[in-house]
Amino acid sequence: MRQAVREALERVHDTPLRNAADGLPLITSLGIIEGEILIALERDGALTLRELTRALTWPARLIMMAVGGLVREHLIQVTQFERDLVIEPTQAVADVTVADEPVTQEAVPEVWGG
Fold it and tell me: Which of 50, 53, 72, 79 is the most buried (most CB within 10 A)?
């Protein structure tokens, strides 16, 4: 699947900012890694940086860049514990859940053709 995503992104993006590890545009790679980090934290809870690096298949330097981006967006927090960094979702992200009920649609105003 990763190969198919890579090929699709190669066709769409024509940018000189390439990640030497896999050829994807750097911004795209970071977005994918950020998503994988959030999924791992949702699945496993708080992880050390070492555990996170072992769990993901990306280079450590890109994982660190993605962690920095998520910290800047206040989606995760990083604290030092002994000689390692502990990464965990912020309270706001941890409280987000998907509702079991379908989303109700509001009536479309008459002005908009409803």
Answer: 53
